Amino acid sequence: MKQNTFKNFMSFSRSERIAIITIVSAIVIILIIKYLITNNPPERNYYKHDLDSIVARREFVMDSVRRADSIERANVKRNEIPRYARNDKESSFRPKRNEMEHSGEILNSAKQLKNKDYQIIIDLNAADTTLLKELPGIGSSFAKRIVEYRTKLGGFCESGQLLEVYGMDSSRYEGIKDFVKTDSTFTPNRLRINSDEFKKLLKHPYLEYEDVKKIVNHREQKGLITSWEQLKKVVGDGINPRLQYYVDYQ
Predict the structure, then answer these.
(1) Using the 8-state DSSP alphabet, how is residue 41 labeled?
(2) Residue 139: strand, helix, or coil
């Protein structure tokens, strides 16, 4: 009786044998796949999938944002000073040591010219690049910059405006200021503040985008600007006092 019971227990039907074979086959396949993965790991795209790389890129972006925010805060502080009171050109041009030594040579050269009763005084609004190069420390590059800036301005009304030329530091200016002049009868090219187009006004060195926007909005919504005092109120405290030389209210 016991033998028959054991025999019945160990015997399987056809469907049961198929199920057992399927399970065993699945287990064998899983073991083979595990072995292959362990000994032959798949290639990884570290650029796309590596977590450290993703974190590193995120940190880089955040650092860039923080730096930009820091620069913006510095600019806000700096903008508390009226634009015309900042020496933007000089601060953006930082002479190297050899250039500073060259500035000293310019001053010495200028002193020597003074001692020799140098009589040539150059009119800044009439001189071409050839004549400007006669000044101590002014070569072809600087002469070209002076002429280009003169054109953008509409002419020089003060010799001190040379300090607005890119790269012109105080030492170089000190070396040439006694040999240049602006004619008191000179009339600069003027902006027609009530009729010139936005783009033309924006080209002037003393006007920035927000300034022109205020001017155009005012004349379209409130009427013409008729005086320097009114223009100062429209533009605000950042207006450059020298702009009054270049404005026509007709």
Answers:
(1) P
(2) coil
User: What whole-number distance in Å separates Cα of residue 160 and Cα of residue 177?
Assistant: 8
pTM: 0.57
Do residues 242 and 206 lie in contact, with contact meaning Cβ atoms separated by under 8 Å? yes
pLDDT for residue 26: 84
Q: Residue 242 burial by CB count (10 A; 0-12/13-18/19+): exposed, middle or buried? A: middle
Contact 81, 89 (CB under 8 A): no
Asked whether the beta carbons of 226 and 249 are under 8 A apart, the reply is yes
User: Which tokens sit at 51?
Assistant: 């977590």
Token code pair at residue 200: 């033309």
Neighbours of 105 (CB within 10 A): 13
Q: How many residues does the chain have?
A: 250
